[in-house]
């Protein structure tokens, strides 16, 4: 699939998403009932953000603990190399 096709698909998806949000803010399409997309999105964000922060915190702690262990091993190797 070419890059131009991917760009077009991305633009179509972007337009659909923006249209759904615009529809929830103000009813633009006559005859079609309004769907609460924005309210649903906010509800999902309120549920996802704490879990995301917990996972991000665990990732940062894990990376930093690993970095501390690597520094200790590097210092140990440097001391062995000097002897």
Task: Jot down its keywords.
83 residues; mainly alpha; 2 domains; 2 helices; 0% strand; elongated
SSE inventory with pairings:
Elements: H1 3-25, H2 37-82
Report on this structure.
By secondary structure, this protein is mainly alpha-helical. It folds into two domains: 1-35; 36-83. The protein is built from two helices and no strands. It has helices at 3-25, 37-82.
Quick description:
The protein is an all-alpha fold and 83 residues long.
Globular, elongated, flat, extended or rod-shaped: what is the shape? elongated
Give the number of helices: 2
Distance between the termini: 59 Å
Could you tell me the strand content as a percent range? under 5%
Poorly predicted sequence stretches spanning 5 or more consecutive residues: none
Number of DSSP strands? 0
What count of domains describes the coordinates?
Answer: 2
Can you give the helix content as a percent range?
over 70%
Question: Taking Cα atoms only, what radius of gyration do you get, to the nearest Å?
Answer: 25 Å
The average pLDDT score comes to: 80
The class by helix and strand makeup works out as mainly alpha
Described by strand count, sense and barrel closure, the largest sheet is: none
- Please trace the helix and strand order, writing H or E for each element: HH
């Amino acid at each position: 699939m070419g890059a131009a096709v991917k760009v077009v698909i991305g633009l179509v998806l972007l337009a659909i998403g923006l249209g759904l949000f615009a529809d929830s803010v103000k009813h633009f399409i006559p005859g079609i009932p309004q769907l609460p997309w924005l309210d649903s999105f906010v509800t999902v964000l309120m549920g996802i953000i704490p879990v995301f922060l917990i996972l991000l915190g665990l990732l940062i702690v894990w990376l930093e603990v690993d970095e501390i262990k690597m520094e200790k091993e590097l210092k140990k190797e440097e001391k062995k190399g000097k002897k």
